[in-house]
Write a structure and sequence with these properties.
Strand content: 5-15%
Order of helices and strands: HHEHEHEEEHEEEHEHHHEHHEHH
Shape: globular
Structural class: alpha/beta
Radius of gyration: 21 Å
Number of domains: 2
Largest sheet: 5 strands, parallel
Number of helices: 13
Length: about 325
């Protein structure tokens, strides 16, 4: 059945490479799961973001271990630096990027680098920062370099930003504009753990003199991550599957396939959605040990790629329309190749 998606396949990935990649990424998943209990899909999607070299927005109520997930991921990659930036309403761009400081003893200026100089960054409660600081963070994420007093500094690779926002408290926050949210590759929504998972959480976090992160061992190197990021773009996508992606995005814009629910949508997916959807599907294929994409790979990532890119109109917001349900209905009307 999958043979038709391999027609005219042209890829430089070998079977040995594919097997090695799938094994290493499986080990990464297992290592993270030692500490971050449950939420398997969230773990998978964070790994997808890492190997696609894209950033993710994590949303969930307090206490769901969003910060723990980022630190755990950082510890699984040898020789990397992890930084946490706690965003607050009075934060300035210089607080995250860095400044040109003056030393009165020597009479000289020197560069003080900000916390964005790291491999893994937790941008905690990014919606608490004022718009100017949010914009500075977006520029950092996009350009992967900063300019301090005329000097350009590039960030090390890998460079991954996982930003969090708390949906339950809006006092003192600056909601992210849709144009800024669109710059995130994925939006991941965390939910409460299942009862059996919460029992494991109790056991893990109430032990005497025990730090759960101590059990995490590095299973990858920065060069492994860079190799994944280069190889994921070599995964083959056939013309019918490319058309499937474009049909999905066009339907979200109210074009092509007619779906009544589009009357609630002001803006559908941008070309950035098309790019990220195809790249995310490639990552799922690579994690599965394949060098070609099938429609199931697209369906595995589409909700996380599209949930924040469907902009509802007033009628949609007033009706309480859920963008995840819209994506499901779009998939139902678009023909699978």
């Amino acid at each position: 059945m999958e043979d038709k998606y391999e027609v005219n396949k042209d890829t430089s990935l070998t079977d040995e490479q594919l097997k090695s990649y799938a094994e290493k990424l499986s080990n990464l998943r297992k290592e993270i799961s030692k500490v971050f209990i449950g939420q398997k899909e969230i773990v998978n999607m964070v790994i997808v973001a890492l190997i696609c070299d894209g950033h993710a927005l994590l949303e969930g109520v307090p206490g769901l271990a969003k910060s723990l997930l980022v630190e755990t991921l950082a510890r699984t990659v040898e020789g990397t630096v992890h930084k946490r930036i706690q965003f607050v309403p009075d934060m300035l761009p210089a607080d995250i990027v860095g400044v040109n400081a003056y030393n009165p003893k020597t009479g000289e200026f020197y560069i003080v680098k900000g916390p964005v100089f790291a491999n893994f960054i937790l941008a905690d409660e990014i919606n608490r920062a004022p718009p100017k600081t949010q914009a500075a963070m977006m520029e950092v994420m996009q350009e992967r370099k900063v300019n301090i007093s005329g000097k350009e500094f590039k960030f090390p690779r890998p460079f991954l930003v996982l930003a969090t926002q708390n949906p339950v408290e809006q006092y003192g926050t600056y909601p992210l504009p849709e144009a800024i949210v669109d710059r995130f590759f994925l939006k991941l929504v965390l939910d409460y753990p299942k009862p059996d998972e919460e029992i494991r959480i109790i056991d893990q976090n109430t032990m005497t003199k025990y730090n759960s992160l101590d059990v995490i061992k590095p299973v990858l190197t920065p060069n492994d991550i860079i190799e994944f990021q280069n190889s994921v773009r070599k995964v083959f996508i056939s013309q019918p599957v490319k058309k499937y992606i474009v049909d999905i995005i066009n339907t979200s814009r109210g074009r092509g396939n007619k779906y009544q629910g589009m009357k609630y949508v002001k803006y559908g997916g941008s070309p950035r959605a098309t790019i990220w959807l195809s790249l995310g599907a490639r990552a799922i294929a690579l994690m599965s040990g394949r060098d070609f994409v099938v429609p199931d790979d697209i369906r595995a990532v589409i909700h996380h790629v599209m949930r924040h890119r469907l902009i509802l109109n007033y009628e949609g917001k007033a009706s309480g329309i859920n963008t995840v349900d819209l994506v499901d209905n779009i998939l139902n009307v678009v023909e699978v190749p």
